[in-house]
Design brief:
By secondary structure, this protein is α/β, with parallel strands linked by helices. 30% of the residues lie in helices and 21% in strands. The chain has helices at residues 16-26, 77-87, 104-112, 114-119, 126-134, 154-163, 195-202, 234-240, 260-270, 280-283, 298-311; strands at 3-8, 31-34, 42-46, 49-53, 66-69, 74-75, 93-96, 100-101, 151-152, 168-171, 211-217, 219-222, 244-245, 252-257, 274-278, 315-319, 327-329. Strands 9-7-5-2-10-1-11-15-16-17 form a ten-stranded mixed beta sheet, with helices on both faces. Strands 12-14-13 form a three-stranded antiparallel beta sheet, with no helix packed on it. Strands 3-4 form a two-stranded antiparallel ribbon. Helix 3 packs across helix 5 and helix 9 (260-270) packs across helix 11. Bound molecules: inosinic acid and magnesium ion. Magnesium ion (MG) is lined by residues 12-13, 40-41, 247. Inosinic acid (IMP) is lined by residues 11-13, 39-40, 119-122, 124, 126-127, 173-174, 178, 187, 189-190, 223-224.
């Protein structure tokens, strides 16, 4: 797998955390670089415990994995330090000198803005922090005394590891349809979320990437405002077992059936080479806990084949339950 980018195919919350934790343990991943910011939570089940991580990379489940926070990301210092404690990764986590900092005022600005409220932002201050960075007045990680023990050059570490053939994972956050460039503007986040942007934030050039793994959930969810094709009522979502609440903010997630056209477009813009489909057991309950493709029902197999046909990439990983190891792995 040498250098793999994990990217979200829809509006985030596709189950990237679960796929990352599986790969971290299985490959194993030696370096995991987190991009984006504190607005995104990655849910990981590990040793029977649930983690919703906003800053620490999902690769933490593999004890030897070096965890890095990219130069392009925005760091909430308090959240970072709390999660480092929670996951006990103090001696193997690093932050790039040039990652920028979210301050209290950014979150206050996010929450006070009627415009941002109308977009249904997470209120974590990411948009205002990025504005500050663009004005060239932002604080950077290297300006914060508490972060001193963690500072490193993430691009140097990551590219050196790639050149040595180590397994490196670039962890995208959110999803393509929340991209500032390619999403449902203005109902988007403050950054590009595509695979190219993930590389750019980490400081890894496109020629260094071997795989782009897009994560698609078997149904679609969206938090916040903005269009959602074929949206179900909350009652219908509950009836189908598709009703979720956001790992970060606790808000209701709106739900809709899988959308093949959106999947095709997202695969194209991400340049995805393979796909992971998560939560198959939520649309085909009999598949819960399945470990092989053969044991799936005819309908479930047809659903996967249709995704492959429409996106023209193979579905290599299929999620059949919440645990990191509830997965059908079809990679050679
Ligand atoms: P912001 O990123 O907090 O500015 O919010 C902008 C939009 O992106 C809102 O619709 C949020 O609900 C959505 N959003 C931001 N981060 C995530 C995420 O990690 N998962 C799902 N939606 C997100
Ligand atoms: Mg999430």
């Amino acid at each position: 797998m040498p250098c793999t980018v994990i990217t979200g195919g829809f509006w985030g919350d596709e189950g990237k955390g679960k796929i990352i934790s599986y790969l971290a343990l299985k490959e194993p991943i030696e370096i995991c670089v987190r991009t984006g910011s504190v607005n995104a939570a990655h849910t990981i089940w590990y040793n029977g415990k649930r983690y919703a991580l906003h800053m620490v990379p999902g690769g933490f489940v593999h004890e030897k994995c070096r965890l890095l926070v990219a130069a392009g990301s925005n760091v909430d210092v308090k959240q970072f330090l709390e999660e480092v404690e929670l996951t006990s990764v103090k001696n193997r986590v690093g932050i790039d000198y040039q990652a920028s900092i979210i301050e209290e005022k950014h979150s206050a600005q996010d929450k006070a803005s009627a415009h941002l409220k109308g977009l249904g932002t997470t209120g974590r201050g990411v948009g205002p922090a990025i504005e500050e960075r663009v004005r060239r007045t932002a604080k950077l990680a290297k300006d914060i005394p508490e972060l001193k023990p963690y500072l490193t050059d993430v691009a140097e570490e990551t590219n050196t590891a790639i050149d040595k053939g180590k397994n490196v994972l670039l962890e995208g956050t959110q999803g393509l349809l929340l991209s500032l460039f390619h999403g449902t503007y203005p109902y988007v986040t403050g950054r590009d979320t595509s695979a190219s942007a993930i590389c750019s934030e980490a400081g890894v050039g496109p020629t260094k990437v071997d795989n782009v793994l897009i994560v698609l959930k078997a149904f679609i969810t969206r938090v916040g405002t903005g269009p959602l094709p074929d949206e179900l009522t909350k009652e219908e979502a509950i009836k189908r077992g598709w009703f979720e609440t956001a790992a970060g903010t606790g808000r209701d997630r709106r739900a809709a059936p899988f959308n093949f056209e959106l999947a095709r477009k997202s695969v194209m813009i991400n340049g995805a080479t393979q796909a992971a489909v998560t939560k198959l057991d939520c649309i085909y309950p009999e598949s819960k806990g399945s470990k092989t493709f053969e044991e799936l029902s005819k309908e479930a197999k047809q659903f996967i084949s249709k995704i492959e046909k429409q996106t023209r990439i193979p579905v290599t990983l299929i999620g059949t339950g919440p645990d990191a190891l509830d997965i059908i792995d079809r990679r050679k």
